[in-house]
Amino acid sequence: MRSLQQGAADLPLSKRVLPERCSVMDIEVSSVRFSFYGKSAVLTLARDITDRKKAEEQIRTSLKEKEVLLKEIHHRVKNNLQIVSSLLYLQSRKTNDQQVLSVLRESQTRVRSMALIHEKLYQCDDLANINLGDYIRSLTSYLFNSYGVASHMVKLAIHVDSAPLGSTAQSRAA
């Protein structure tokens, strides 16, 4: 409190106190200096913020739990897509029918494309602003490699404006 009276404290000030009823209480202290009938005075207000602090801690804990769950879901989806892709590959090794082989390879390419968008979504910090250009470049590069397209035979030119993937679709639906 001396630092408040001397004007040295940063305001508002947040402290933990132990009142007479013997339970911990978080308070926020605000103070202002003023002149009253020619004398210097300090008006100090202390507010109980215990409930707010508890709510903030609950929100932080809940957010951490959700982050852990999201990572677990990502890991499971990634593993499941890899398993499906591997099963398609193993099945393709057991057939000599070119039509069946073509369908299996096409399915494997689709699964890998889904895995690619899933990975891009997971790496994105802001899901509302996914870099569509990066995704399209990665996808086309993967597809070129998958289908054996020689880069010297086909020149790919991608012109994509930076557009938020999620909000554009949402605004059109609204």
Number of helices: 5
Fraction of residues in β-strands:
15-25%
Largest sheet: 3 strands, antiparallel
Q: What is the straight-line distance between the termini?
A: 55 Å
Neighbour order of strands in the largest sheet: 1-2-3
Shape: elongated
Proportion of helical residues: 55-70%
The helix/strand class is alpha+beta
Q: Tell me the Rg in angstroms.
A: 30 Å
Low-confidence stretches: 167-174
- Strand and helix order: HEEEHHHH
- Number of beta-strand segments: 3
Overall pLDDT level = 81
Brief rundown of the structure:
56% of the residues lie in helices and 16% in strands. With 174 residues, the chain is α+β, with helices and mostly antiparallel strands.
Report on this model:
Helices cover 56% and strands 16% of the residues. It has 174 residues and is an alpha+beta fold. A 3-stranded antiparallel sheet has the order 1-2-3, with helices on one face. The radius of gyration is 30 Å and the shape is elongated. Mean pLDDT is 81; it is low at 167-174.
Features:
174 residues; 5 helices; 56% helix; 16% strand
Layout of helices and strands, plus pairs?
Elements: H1 2-5, E1 13-17, E2 25-36, E3 39-48, H2 50-92, H3 98-123, H4 132-146, H5 165-173
Antiparallel strand pairs: 1-2, 2-3
